[in-house]
Design a protein that fits this description.
This protein is mostly helical and 314 residues long. The protein is 77% helix and 2% strand.
Length: 314
């Protein structure tokens, strides 16, 4: 184990702690709000589901890389590799689907009343749970096929084509996976990423039209006002932008490592970092202009002021 490996392990631990803490904080906050108020706004179940998927993705992605960075040998056997990589791929797929759903729901929410999507606004509440169930089932079914080809690494020198993880590896696609399996994954990613980009472009056009209308009013007060819906739209657009950047960067690196004959484990560690960047940043972007977070922080501020006042009076 080299000092650089230890430093990289410390960085991974920091990323794990920050990402899990941020996502769990938002998830528990949404659950607490639901238990108190007995109802949630349209986007709140999507946010809570996304933070849960992000927490699991970060955990299953970074934990093996952290153990490898600190020199732990044989951390995972064949069964452990199958379980960890399967859960990582499923939760990452659910995170992709949930982000796409979030973008689509926001686009429908901010669409004008006379748009062709307006009729969907009244049906969104009834569609959330079926979509979540569909996301989990479809991703679990897609990656069942990959379990057969995942094994633990038993040779320190890795040569050949295929996917390599910190302690795990898969055989070449031509031997262990059918072309239909790869096509299904590509089609899933293409559908949800394209949906994400199309709804994002639609929201950008709506914001641009709103900005032009505000300028025509010739009122600085009106043009400077930003509705909660537009603030939420800006946040989701920023979220989608971060996802697309890290998604394509991670996929390019993964494809390069798969089709490289001699494997470089440091590249796999970098791939783990890239695949965890979006789930780590996501909760902090969602906290921006979030009413539930604002209410939580304001209540703590009030409690602190009351405590200080009682101490002063005492």
């Amino acid at each position: 184990m080299f000092p650089s490996d230890t430093m990289f392990g410390v960085f991974l631990v920091s990323q794990l702690c920050v990402g899990v803490a941020g996502n769990l904080f938002l998830f528990l906050l949404y659950m607490h709000t639901f238990s108190v108020q007995r109802h949630m706004k349209l986007m709140d179940p999507v946010f809570s589901h996304l933070t849960l998927a992000n927490t699991l993705t970060i955990t299953f992605t970074l934990t093996p890389h952290i153990a490898s960075s600190f020199g732990v040998r044989q951390f995972l056997d064949d069964v452990g590799c199958k379980a960890v990589l399967y859960m990582y791929r499923v939760t990452r797929g659910v995170s992709i689907c949930a982000t796409s759903l979030l973008s689509a729901f926001q686009a429908i929410t901010v669409s004008p009343r006379n748009s062709k999507w307006a009729w969907l606004k009244f049906k969104l509440h009834t569609q959330i749970c079926p979509w979540f169930l569909f996301f989990w089932i479809i991703n679990m079914l897609i990656y069942i096929h990959a379990i057969r080809s995942i094994t633990a690494i038993r040779n320190s020198t890795l040569v050949g084509y295929g996917y390599v993880h910190a302690y795990c590896q898969t055989g070449p696609f031509g031997k262990h996976s059918s072309s239909s399996y790869v096509i299904v994954i590509l089609v899933r990613d293409l559908v949800f990423v394209v949906l994400m980009l199309c709804t994002s472009l639609y929201m950008v056009s709506l914001l641009h039209r709103h900005h032009r209308r505000a300028q025509h009013l010739h009122s600085p007060h009106v043009s400077s006002q930003t509705s909660p819906e537009h603030k939420a739209t800006h946040t989701i657009l920023l979220l989608v932008g971060c996802f697309v950047v890290f998604y394509f960067a991670n996929n390019c690196l993964t494809l390069y490592s798969i089709y490289t004959h001699k494997k470089i484990l440091s590249l796999e560690g970098l791939s783990g970092v890239l695949s965890s960047c979006y789930p780590t940043i996501c909760p902090f972007l969602l906290m921006k202009n979030n009413k539930i977070v604002s209410q939580f922080t304001s209540s703590f501020s009030v409690m602190g002021l009351r405590g200080s006042q009682r101490a002063f009076d005492g």
